[in-house]
Structure formats: structure tokens, C-alpha cells
Amino acid sequence: MSHKNGQTSRRLLVVDDDPDIRRLITTIAEEEGYTVLALGDGREAYRRLMSDANFGAVILDMMMPHLKGPDIARHMRTEKRLMRIPVLMITGGDELSLMADSFAAGATAFLPKPFTPEQLQSTLRLFLNKTH
């Protein structure tokens, strides 16, 4: 699997059922040089990942209708084509158990909402350094 000019690592899948959060993440990620595919539904994201594994990172909301972020992350960790993709889990819940659940599911990083654009930027930069 060749990564021409790192294009794959520059593709970001963002999954959150809140359109404002999707817009915010997309804007910041594009400023960081990512090409963003933003989806509002976990089931849709799962289907997309099954057909297209060429993402440098995936950002998942923990709580979504149909399929939650940790379910998708757990599945990614069992799928050979997806297991190396870093996963950032975001959530509006502030319980520490949510963070533990995220990492148990295979998340690479965790960001509680509300987060600042700066927090998201530095997390994305961390991802970039990981995938290069």
C-alpha cells in the first residue's frame, strides 16, 4: 500500500451527529491541510470505512444514534486494513469512565467537548506526527 505524497494520511474522516461540531472540526482540519469527509451517522461511517480504508485519522463522537464511536473504534481494531488508523474520540460527557471506555475500544486520543479550536489543532498535529 503506497502513500503517494502522504495523501492518505491527509484524509480525515469526521463522524459526529452534531452539524456544528462537524463544521468546526472540518474548518480547523482543512486549515491544518487535511481533506475532510464529514458524516453524521455511525452506521454510515462504518459502511464508508468498509469500502474505503484510506484515511490518515478518524474522529469519532462517542454518543451517536445507531452506532456509537467506541463500537466503530472496536471494529476498526479487528479489521486489518483499519487497525493502524489513529482514532480521536470526542464526547460531551465529562465522566472519566468515558475516557477509559474510549481507550479500551482502541482510541488513540480523547478530547472532551467543549474543546477549543487550539485543543483540536494541537491534537490533529499530534496525529500528523504519528502518521508520518
Features:
132 residues; alpha/beta; Rossmann fold; 5-stranded parallel β-sheet; disordered N terminus
Could you please describe the fold and organization of this structure?
It is a single chain. The two termini are 15 Å apart. Strands 2-1-3-4-5 form a 5-stranded parallel β-sheet, sandwiched between helices. By secondary structure, the chain is an alpha/beta fold. The protein contains 5 helices and 5 strands, in the order βαβαβαβαβα. The protein has one domain (4-115): 3-Layer(aba) Sandwich (Rossmann fold), CATH 3.40.50.2300. The chain is globular. The model is unreliable at 1-5 (pLDDT under 50). Helix 4 links the parallel strand 4 and strand 5. It has helices at 19-31, 42-51, 69-78, 96-105, 117-131; strands at residues 11-15, 35-39, 57-61, 87-91, 109-112. Helix 1 (19-31) crosses helix 5 (117-131) and helix 3 packs parallel to helix 4 (96-105).
